[in-house]
Design brief:
about 270 residues, two-stranded antiparallel sheet, 8-stranded mixed β-sheet
């Protein structure tokens, strides 16, 4: 009787990563227009996320607003929860409400210094959106989830002109220049050809890639570089664990409709 082989998840991710490289070359060989190439590469990541995220999530692209009608830039990848209304879901790009967004991010075929600068500005725009918390039930301590007020925002690049240390220098310079808290920065950067950077926000025990000291306490670090040598695995692991587990006890649209209704004049009805 033959012995069953154990499933080797690392080989599965290695194979998937190679397939993505091949498909990327196919896109480059098939299209000349950068916009078309960009659309196809973005779709690769959206399809990947749909495969690995729980079925209660949906993945789209568009702009995000909050109850004060602040608006994000157009975002390549927007992951919505089951609480998000299906308003305009057949339209792309779409409009999303921040309370129904689990995470968001952007995709680059090849990351340059200017692309990284733009991504950090887009992340800051996204982090300025305000989440209404009154209707939320959160499983865990609020202090343990930096993503409760601001859902995570990532950058994924298939190739990069910058190495990990170069990106760290530019991110740090951007933070110092604009006097930003670490929570206002990109939350994770995935370079398919270089590696991964995770923004721990000084909390080594965030539910993914936990950084620990010898006494099993959390390391007080801001940025960490997982040494898996498999960025696709890092990406799937991170998107599977980064979002906070929430229950919403009233509709996402309610606060938006209430704000709208406050400006409506109610007229008496006379027969």
């Amino acid at each position: 009787m033959s012995e069953h082989k154990k499933v080797d998840l690392r080989k599965i991710f290695e194979s998937a990563q190679e397939k993505i490289k091949i498909y990327l070359e196919h896109i480059r060989a098939s299209y000349q227009h950068n916009g078309i190439k960009g659309n196809h590469t973005e779709q690769i990541v959206r399809d990947l996320m749909k495969k690995y995220l729980p079925q209660k999530f949906d993945v789209g692209t568009g702009e995000i607003i909050d109850t004060n009608y602040n608006r994000s830039q157009q975002i390549d990848v927007v992951v919505t929860t089951e609480d998000h209304p299906s308003l305009l879901q057949d339209v792309a790009p779409n409009m999303f409400f921040i309370e129904g967004v689990a995470m968001a991010g952007e995709i680059k075929t090849r990351l340059t210094s200017s692309h990284l600068e733009a991504a950090m500005k887009n992340a800051l725009s996204f982090k300025k959106l305000e989440v209404v918390l009154q209707s939320l039930l959160y499983f865990g301590n609020k202090e343990d989830s930096p993503y409760l007020l601001h859902p995570p925002y990532f950058l994924f690049a298939f190739e990069s002109d910058l190495n990990i240390s170069g990106i760290y220098e530019k991110v740090t310079a951007f933070q110092n220049k604009h006097k930003l808290d670490s929570a206002q920065l990109l939350d994770a950067i995935f370079l398919a050809d270089k590696g991964t950077m995770i923004n721990y926000q000084g909390r080594g025990g965030i539910g993914h890639f936990g950084l620990r000291n010898g006494d099993n306490t959390d390391m007080d670090v801001i940025w960490g570089h997982p040494d898996t040598k498999l960025p696709l695995f890092d990406f799937v692991f991170w998107i599977s664990t980064a979002y906070p587990r929430l229950i919403r006890n009233r509709p996402v649209l309610q606060d938006y409709l209430m704000n709208m209704n406050s400006s409506v004049r109610i007229l008496p009805y006379d027969k």
